[in-house]
Amino acid sequence: MGQLIRFGVSIEPKLLTDFDKLINKKGYANRSEAIRDLIRSELVDFKCKSGSEETIGTITIVYNHEVRDLSDKLTHLQHNYHGFIISTLHVHLDEHNCLEVLVVKGKGDKVKKIADELIGTKGVKHGKLTMTTTGRDLT
Ligand code: NI
Fold first, then answer.
1. Distance in Å, CA 64 to ligand 1 centroid
2. Mind listing the pLDDT tens digit for each residue in 81-122?
3. Could you tell me the distance, in angstroms and rounded to a whole number, from the CA of residue 90 to the centre of ligand 1?
4. In this structure, how many other beta carbons lie within 10 angstroms of the beta carbon of residue 127?
């Protein structure tokens, strides 16, 4: 950790009590570390929502591989975006269901578009996009 700056915050007692309970449950060593994490989280969220900043997305989808043409469609889509998809993980959950996790790198808008197309493909049972930072520019 580099140079630190101390600053004062005015806050209602109840809000602070609730915050202390929360960070205690989450296992934070102190308020400062919890507040730093909250700030980082907001910065990452803002960056992801801006759409034009470089982000990392993890897209998780669950589907039945026996649905006609579904596996082919999903593979075709992924090949369309091969330049953005860094890695994929495929798990055969049972006889019918598959789980795929894709790690995608690109501008926020692009990552969302890829996720929307995959998750929106007919036959995909569930899908979720989680966006985060590349880690650059974040202390
Ligand atoms: Ni499978």
1. 8
2. 999 999 999 999 999 999 999 999 999 999 999 999 999 999
3. 6
4. 17
Q: Report residue 61's pLDDT band, with 50, 70 and 90 as the boundaries.
A: very high
Fill in the amino acid letter for 103: V
Q: pLDDT digit string (tens) for 1-18?
A: 679 999 999 999 999 999
123: left (phi over 0), alpha (psi -120 to 50) or beta: left
How far, in Å, from the CA of 53 to the mean position of ligand 1?
33
d(CA 37, CA 16): 16
Can you give the length of the chain in residues?
A: 139
> pLDDT tens digits, residue range 41-51?
999 999 888 88
Centre of ligand 1 from the C-alpha of residue 19, in Å: 43
| 107: its two tokens | 């501008």
Residue whose entry in the numeric block shows the structure tokens 């470089």: 54
Ligand 1 centroid vs 58 CA: distance in angstroms?
A: 18
